[in-house]
Design goal:
The structure holds 2 protein chains of 2 kinds. Chain A is an alpha/beta fold. Helices cover 26% and strands 28% of the residues of chain A. Chain A is built from 4 helices and 7 strands, in the order αββαββββαβα. Chain A has a 5-stranded mixed β-sheet. Chain A has a two-stranded parallel ribbon with strand order 6-7. In chain A, β3 and β4 form a beta hairpin. By secondary structure, chain B is an alpha/beta fold. Chain B has one domain (3-151): Rossmann fold (3-Layer(aba) Sandwich), CATH 3.40.50.12280. Residues 180-189 of chain B have low confidence and may be disordered. Chain B has 9 helices and 5 strands, in the order ααβαββαβαβαααα. Chain B is globular, with a radius of gyration of 17 Å. Chain B has helices at 3-11, 13-19, 36-40, 71-83, 95-99, 130-146, 151-157, 159-169, 180-186, and strands spanning 22-25, 51-53, 62-66, 89-93, 121-123. Chain B starts with a helix and ends in a 9-residue tail after the last helix. The chains are: A alpha/beta, B alpha/beta.
């Protein structure tokens, strides 16, 4: 099955989903937030059995957080990205642990770095940071330089 | 040994013993730990210089801080340093402990190690070659001979200064347990200058 076949299969079954093939071996599918679980189910049934990563993009001007689920198919060697956007002010989304069990760690990390709550994840405790207080560090309103200056006493550098 | 060194050795035999048996405590404090296995094994053989790896901090007297120091690691470093017995020498390895290096504006990495524990010597570079460790060790010998490697004395003399800086970034550390909240709220907004 080629990328174009996969694109056609998704477009047939989910009309609300925007699918694109930017280059060989890459598939990008964007859906509204209530369609994401169905999309992941579809992709998993089409051979995308490996969830490689969940990443997040902060679109601060649009007031949205974009969740990107990276899936990999051993069979067709295609890297698929399932994208959806959630509200930035009350970041909540469903956990996909029933579908991919190892998503637990990725969701835990996103909870720590972006403050997204995943309903259904049993263990959203801090992972990398140590007693972090204040806004999560990967959100764009977090002022990195000021934080470093206030906490660690960094001197401003020229250039 | 030079004949001229005999009198010096007799004057301070303890220093003579210390400088040739630097037992190194290190754990994976950062990326620089990659340089350590070749240093202690056959290719560079640190035992020529009296440096051997030591499993426990209570038996070691040389603390190598290898690479960047995140906040969690800093807690472990402070605990380890407090456990080591005097005299103890600290060598910062790589540019990150010196001034933050490439993590100079990171949110979770400390920038100046000598604000939290006293450091006797620095090795700059990213990463330094294993030979640089031996250069540092021979420099440390000179410092020990002259009585200049006195970081552990500075730590005792300026304990409040170091504790205040440590508490600013790690108020939940075991040694500050209790009263952490009230004291961090009262802490000044900027770090004090070293004495």
């Amino acid at each position: 099955m080629t990328e174009e076949d996969l694109k056609q299969r998704i477009a047939d079954r989910m009309p609300q989903c925007g699918v694109a093939v930017p280059k060989p071996g890459r598939l990008i599918a964007s859906v509204p937030r209530d369609g994401l679980l169905s999309l992941l189910h579809l992709l998993k049934a089409d051979g995308f059995e490996h969830l490689a990563l969940i990443s997040c993009v902060d679109w601060i001007e649009e007031g949205e957080l974009e969740l990107v689920y990276h899936l990999w198919s051993q069979e067709t060697k295609v890297h698929a990205m399932a994208k959806t956007r959630i509200s930035r002010d009350s970041p909540r989304f469903l956990s996909i642990i029933p579908l991919f069990r190892h998503a637990q760690t990725y969701e835990r990390e996103l909870h720590e770095m972006f403050g997204i709550t995943f309903d259904g994840n049993p263990r959203l405790v801090p992972m990398l940071l140590d007693h972090w207080q204040g806004i999560p560090p990967m959100r764009k309103e977090f002022d990195l330089r000021r934080h470093a200056k206030e906490t660690f006493g960094v001197e401003e550098r020229a250039g | 040994m030079d004949r001229g060194d005999i009198l010096k050795t007799l004057k301070a035999p303890a220093n003579w013993g210390r400088k040739y048996s630097l037992w190194a405590v290190y754990f994976c404090t950062g990326c620089g730990i990659i340089e350590i296995p070749p240093v202690i094994t056959s290719r560079w053989d640190a035992e020529r210089f009296g440096v051997i790896p030591m499993a426990t901090p209570r038996q070691g007297n040389l603390f190598l801080i290898t690479g960047y120091v995140s906040l969690k690691t800093l807690g472990a470093i402070i605990r380890t340093y407090d456990q080591m017995l005097d005299p103890k020498y600290v060598v910062g390895f790589g540019s990150c402990p010196v001034n933050g290096g490439m993590y100079w504006d990171s949110y979770n990495t400390i920038k100046h190690l000598d604000k939290y524990i006293p450091v006797d010597g620095w090795i700059s570079g990213c990463m330094p070659r294993p030979e640089a460790i031996f250069v540092a060790v021979t420099h440390l010998w000179t410092l020990i001979d002259k009585g200049l490697a006195d970081g552990y004395k500075k730590y005792k003399d300026n304990y409040e200064y170091y504790c205040e800086n440590q508490r600013r970034v790690l108020p939940h550390l075991g040694k500050f347990a209790g009263g952490a909240e009230t004291e961090t709220a009262a802490a000044p907004a900027t770090l004090r200058m070293p004495p």
